[in-house]
């Protein structure tokens, strides 16, 4: 069970890894006693888990390299999304809603 404080989104989830496929996943127990899973990452050759006593982070041992690894976020900046439409930078002219180059216009398939 993850009990660290760095990744609150996986707190109290059962973290496991499949050595063969490299799948690292988290299981969450539901109120009806079933479990749902989510893929966290992939990393081949993880052979053991431990915990960092300083903050409860899950540590993983890589059998091939001998490295001790930990889960980390990737692809996010932890910055809040823009609060207003002009702040997104999507439009060159807000009065006519003319999109900037690179923005692909679309129409909904089914209007509300």
Keywords:
single chain; about 110 residues; mainly beta; three-stranded antiparallel beta sheet; 1 helix; about 5% helix; about 35% strand
Short description:
Helix content is 4%, strand content 34%. With 112 residues, it is mainly beta. The chain has a domain at 8-70.
Explain this structure.
With 112 residues, this protein is mostly beta strands. It has a domain at 8-70. 4% of the residues lie in helices and 34% in strands. The strands form three sheets. Strands 1-2-3 form a three-stranded antiparallel β-sheet, with no helix packed on it. The protein has a three-stranded antiparallel β-sheet with strand order 4-5-6, with no helix packed on it. A hairpin with a 5-residue loop joins β2 and β3. It is elongated, with a radius of gyration of 21 Å. The model has no long low-confidence stretch (mean pLDDT 86).
